[in-house]
Amino acid sequence: MNAGAPGSRLGSVGLAVYNALYWPYLLASCVLLFFPAVVLYAFTFWDPRRRLLHAYTSLWGAHYLACAPFAGVRLQGRERGLSAGPCVYVSNHQSMVDILAAFATRLPYLWVSKAENFLVPFLGWNMWLSGYIPLKRGKIASIRRMLRRCESRIRSGASLFVFPEGTRSPDGELKSFHRGAFWVAARYRVPVVPVIIEGTARVLPKRSFRIVPQPVTVRILPPIDPSDFGWNDRELRDHVHEVMKGALADMARPASVPSSFEPDARTAEIMK
User: Fold this and answer.
1) What is the CA angle 140-145-147, rounded to 5?
2) ∠ CA(100), CA(154), CA(42), 5° rounding?
3) Alpha carbon 117 to chain centroid distance?
4) Within the chain, where are the H helices?
5) What is the DSSP letter of 38?
6) What stretch of H or E contains 195?
């Protein structure tokens, strides 16, 4: 926990009160805010990119972090994500709060998410309305359906947002990446845009339900073109992992501590 963060100074009683208010607000507001989403879907269901509904959902999801007392989102490099065109955003994954931080970018994308999330009342139903893409991990038939839907969405001009680690990191260290997101980027000739989220593990650690409010940072790195790797998705995956590992280490260390990460020339250029 960062002792200098505002939320960490609330103390045990303050955090108990904060959580006693936060969770009921989140649950009640999800019910209320779902109904405008249904109305927006009814008027825009013909749009395969669900642009208006996604914009509404981004405001809905982001406000639980960006507008929460003692919390907030510091956003860096959003223009890089906007200028990339159809792309695959890939992010590290430390906490369920990562989803709220990603919504705070207000970037145009569709989530690729595990199928179980679509069953969650109101939030999961809205994922279905928004045209997000479900995936049952380890199921070949589901993976194939997911890839077909990804192709359809990208051809319509949409971008995708993926957590390539597949699950939350228990210690904040970047885990190995699955191939899927990079195969899609190489196969359909769109760039990969790395997104680094730092601080969410301190807000809500894995296997915890206690919110410790504090600001988090989202840094969007420059797009990476699969053609630089001969459309080889494995080489692309490994390079993106190296870039994100270095950027995450750079963001997580105190300003007075020099980085021990030594990127190669190509990685250093992308991290600038």
Assistant:
1) 95
2) 65
3) 14
4) 11-44, 51-66, 78-83, 97-103, 123-129, 140-155, 180-187, 200-203, 233-252, 265-271
5) H
6) strand 192-198
Q: How far apart are alpha carbons 181 and 112 in whole angstroms?
A: 9
Read off the amino acid at residue 199.
G
Distance CA 65, CA 227 (A): 37
Give the phi and the psi of residue 197 in degrees, each rounded to 5: -115, 125
Q: What angle do CA 10, 16, 18 make, to 5 degrees?
A: 70
Closest to 214 measured CA to CA, from 15, 12, 13: 15
Contact between residue 224 and residue 239 where contact means Cβ atoms under 8 Å apart:
yes
Find the length of the chain: 272
Global pTM? 0.88
* Residue 254 CB partners (closer than 8 Å, separation 6+): none
pLDDT of the chain, 272 residues: tens digit per residue: 455 566 667 889 999 999 999 999 999 999 999 999 999 999 999 998 899 999 999 999 999 999 999 999 999 999 999 998 899 999 999 999 999 999 999 999 999 988 888 888 898 899 999 999 998 877 888 888 888 888 888 988 999 999 999 888 887 789 999 998 999 999 999 999 999 999 999 999 888 899 999 999 999 999 999 999 999 999 999 999 999 999 999 887 765 454 444 555 555 555 55
Euclidean distance between CA atoms 86 and 153, whole angstroms: 9
Q: How far apart are CA 187 and CA 209, in angstroms?
A: 39
The CA-atom distances, in angstroms, between 139 and each of 79, 142, 143, 144 are: 36, 5, 6, 9
CA distance 105 to 160: 14
Domains of the chain: 6-271 (3.40.1130)
